[in-house]
Design goal:
Layout: H1 7-29, H2 77-84, H3 86-98, E1 103-111, E2 117-124, H4 132-143, E3 153-161
Antiparallel strand pairs: 1-2, 1-3
Helix pairs in contact: 3-4
């Protein structure tokens, strides 16, 4: 079997191939179908600066009591003094990391009618071990307290410090 290719066959083949090439060019030039989504890049607006942090809400039971001048009565004094004690606790935590200390102290305070601290006496329990510097700083903290008491008042309380 012999295959012979005639001139007419070659022309026909070239015509078909040319037609196919033009069809591909037309398909590439056609716009995208209507159901296709076009992606358009737009500039992104700048991000607004972050809001400043909001102040923490202190629960009412931990909030420092606020009193009007001369309005603290003797029966309310423990609540006001208790609100001032965390500063002493923080002092103990920082100082006891440097020098180990532990035990309990009794603090006796006399408030003048002006609200200032008239006197402070700090007495450590006999099994306690505190540095003199720590006890002096506790005294300095208590002396700085000011409570608007209605009259001169004495108040004594105990604080325990353990790791």
């Amino acid at each position: 079997m012999r295959i012979s290719i005639s001139f007419l066959s070659i022309v026909l083949l070239l015509t078909v191939l040319t037609a196919c090439g033009r069809k591909q060019e037309r398909q590439q030039a056609q716009p995208a179908p209507k159901d296709t989504v076009a992606v358009v890049k737009r500039p992104v607006p700048p991000t607004p600066p972050p809001e400043p942090p909001k102040p923490a809400v202190v629960p009412k039971r931990l909030a420092k009591p606020v009193a009007k001048k001369g309005s603290i009565k003797e029966e309310d004094l423990p609540r006001y003094v208790q609100a001032l004690q965390p500063k002493i606790q923080r002092l103990y935590k920082s100082k006891s990391q440097i020098v180990p200390m532990q035990g309990s102290v009794r603090i006796a305070v006399v408030f003048a009618s002006s609200g200032d601290v008239k006197s402070v006496k700090i007495t450590p329990d006999e099994k306690s071990s505190f540095t003199d510097a720590f006890l002096k700083e506790v005294e300095d903290i208590v002396v700085a307290w000011h409570l608007d008491v209605e009259k001169e008042m004495d108040y004594s309380f105990r604080m325990s410090f353990y790791q």
